[in-house]
Amino acid sequence: MRYKNIIFDFGNVIGKFKGDYILGKFASTPEDYNILADAIFKNWVALDAGTIDYDQNAEDTIAELPDRLKDTARDFFENWFQYVDPLPETWEFIKELKARGVPIYLLSNASTRFAERAPEDYPILKEFDGIVFSAPLKMAKPGHDIYYHLFNKYDLLPSECFFIDDTVENVIASKELGMESILFTGDIEAVKRAIEF
């Protein structure tokens, strides 16, 4: 294998994160969906970056909504995590890497609430040698600081790491720092070829 360490993103790499699918589990009509989407997702980037408080944002968002949608929004903020469905091929690949003794790490943009919940909700994370979520650090990809944090915290050399992410900007940032990467589209076989697994 060409690389000593494999680094994974979470959303759409380990678990399927599709905002329209998730919100669709809570909204009962197209009209409600549109109202909720505008309110709920407007601060999502800031939540991932940790620049706003998760609970305060939830309360502020709920307060802006029509009364008939307040309970729906509250339910969403408390329970959306359960609709980030595992991607089985990635989970199997993670187990294959661990069986070979390959160190694996997580570098993911995520809110503080997801960072708290994920290790409990996704048992595959117990396989990881190190986990970095963005919001608790108040930094996020594609900013370089969070990559440096990962390298420094776990004593990793970028040239010895391979990064798997579903966002072009994050892949570009990793390459700028000397870490080879792949834009993940769901094709684990492409990843295996890239790392000569």
Automatic annotation (TrEMBL):
Sample GO molecular function, one term: hydrolase activity
EC primary class: hydrolase
Keywords noted in UniProt: Hydrolase
Alphabetized Pfam families for the sequence: Hydrolase
EC code: 3.1.3.-
Gene3D superfamilies the record matches: HAD superfamily/HAD-like, Putative phosphatase, domain 2
Cited NCBIfam families: HAD-SF-IA-v3 (TIGR01509)
PANTHER family: ALPHA-D-GLUCOSE 1-PHOSPHATE PHOSPHATASE, FLAVIN MONONUCLEOTIDE HYDROLASE 1, CHLOROPLATIC
Protein's name according to its UniProt entry: HAD family phosphatase
Organism of provenance: Dorea longicatena
